[in-house]
Amino acid sequence: MADPSLWKLLERDLPQLDYAVLNAGIASSGEIVDLDIANWRKTMAVNLDGAFLSLRTALQAMKRQGSGSVVLTASVSGIKAAPGTAAYSASKAATIQLTKVAAAEAAAYGVRVNAIAPGGVDTGMWDRAEWFAPLVEQHGGRAQALAAMAEEATPLGRFARADEIAAQIGFLLSDAAATITGTCLVSDGGVSL
What we know:
By secondary structure, this protein is an alpha/beta fold. It is built from 6 helices and 4 strands. It has a 4-stranded parallel β-sheet with strand order 1-2-3-4, with helices on both faces. α2 links the parallel β1 (19-22) and β2 (68-73). α1 runs parallel beside α2 (37-65), α2 packs parallel to α3 and α4 crosses α5 (142-153).
């Protein structure tokens, strides 16, 4: 969704928007010395350009009505550096900063903007990583591979479930969070400690 012309169509037809969750993203891996520019640009186009265009469209609608709440999905990778994640991590760090700038701008017209930075979450994104299939085979199944990774990587010893992240996003959107804007809720099981 990094094509501005598609968003122009939506901007014209979007009469009202109370809530927006901006959750698109792709993962990429590779050390900086081996990372080709095409991979870098694709990751930035989806993760950052897509977030910007989505955010801009949402804020335009919310500004017209004078209210709204937005949550962008960042990542703990935007906070904690890990080898081999340059493009993904840079895009998610920029998403966190984009959230803060948007919150500072949108407060003037009654709109809150926050981010969530999950650590590992049990989603299909793992299944598309080249290095994950051997772990599944080594540990005797997908659930076992995720559990082994979480045990090693997180102080809490587990990854989040998608419904847990969804509930946290729901909180950030809700009236219970009416005084929260410009924050990044880190939900990583302690990875970033």
